[in-house]
Amino acid sequence: MHSFAPEIMLITILSLVVLSDMIASRLKIPSVFLLLSGSYLIYAYFKAAVPIDMAEHFDTVILFCIPLIFMGDALHLRFSDLKKHGWSIFYLAVIAVALSIAVGASLYYFGVFAGLSLGAYVSLFAINMATDAVSVQSVLSRFSGISHDIKVLIEGESLGNDATFFIGLPWMMSGHIDPVHATTEALRVFAVSIGMGLALGYGFYMLMKLFSDKRGELFMFIIEGYAAYVLGEEMHVSGILTLITAIIASKAWIDMDITLSCSTEKKPVAKSFLRKLRMENICATTTERLDYIYEMAKEFGYIAAVMIFFVLAEMVDFETLWFYRNEILVMFGVTTLIRAVSMAKFAFFGKTINSIKPVGAEGWFILTFSGMKGALSIILVHMIPASYEYKVLFEAVTTGVVILSIFVYGAILWAYFTFVKKEPEKKLFAH
């Protein structure tokens, strides 16, 4: 007899999304609250609605969802935004990661988590500092007045620090880090991933010049995302960084085409060799078709995130969470404090650094509590080998922190925008 498990699973996911959005819009609350709660309730109490064994197909679900989640985030980053906020994103992706590692290493000497090695401390903090743009955007999208610059920082941070974590996780988990070897290997992974991403980005950008329909262009971006991720992993570099670079590169060249060749006010511009090489007079897409691609990529990423929530539901064991309750609360409190200190740079030191834009106290508040964890933390903790001695603790702490960050941070932002700040927000960045 034919199994209808995939069809039933699809019905369950789409029904949960539709019902969550409908209820969230009526109650004026973030839909991610309902998605997370609903996925657990369905998985725990309505097994017939989830006929696929999540434990058995854990790897398949995770690997299928990764490119869709990152593709949607990367597409929303414009090249002009990266140029404008490049140093700020670098700070969030590298300096903030280094800060979390330093704090994790220092807590090792205080024995906060009994029995863990230095490498375990570092990797545990790294995993639980990884933000998830899908969870954040599902909350912030409910409120008007969030500046574009804030959204760029949030999305750039998510992509940047997660790529950094994926590169450094193997050494952080080992507990025996040779600085010279780790630096050399990290530079190799970074350089090869960036190079492959640029090459793939250019190749798919040129392929998109061969046709001019929005569906084909959307599918090309999806193919590009999966191809970049698979190729990066097969070459033993960072598939995530390869994917991010490829999508951003294609998008940057498309933006250049639209700006230079497809604008209504065409001005004669001397064409350089590079412009001729990418045949800028042939547009890969248009602004209208690109808007469609944005919207569909966001929806695909949203569905993928819901699938990850069902995986998270499989990991939830309240007895284990209660057993590690102290570790979960300590990790949640410390990571919140780290984030608040990291984001304070934007509020109080930005004006002294020309390349980093200040956002003021309100922007600091939004950035601090937009650091929700989600699908990406689950992906990172799942990548830990089953033989790793601290895996149970890692899964319990990460699951607890993900749940707390979504509900606590989300509730704080919801309360702020609902009861405190009802008028549209002024532009936060000083230019």
TrEMBL record:
Gene3D superfamilies to which the protein is assigned, alphabetical: 6.10.140.1330
Cellular compartment(s): Cell membrane
One GO biological process term: regulation of intracellular pH
Domain Cation/H+ exchanger transmembrane: from-to ranges: 15-246
GO molecular function, a single term: potassium:proton antiporter activity
Record key words, sorted: Cell membrane, Ion transport, Membrane, Sodium, Sodium transport, Transmembrane, Transmembrane helix, Transport
InterPro entries, per the entry: Cation/H_exchanger_CPA1, Cation/H_exchanger_TM
Topology relative to the membrane: Multi-pass membrane protein
Segments crossing the lipid bilayer: 6-24, 29-46, 58-77, 89-112, 118-140, 186-205, 299-316, 328-349, 361-384, 396-417
GO cellular component: plasma membrane
Entries under PANTHER family matching the protein: SODIUM/HYDROGEN EXCHANGER (PTHR10110), SODIUM_HYDROGEN EXCHANGER 7 (PTHR10110:SF86)
Protein name: Na+/H+ antiporter
Organism of origin: hydrothermal vent metagenome
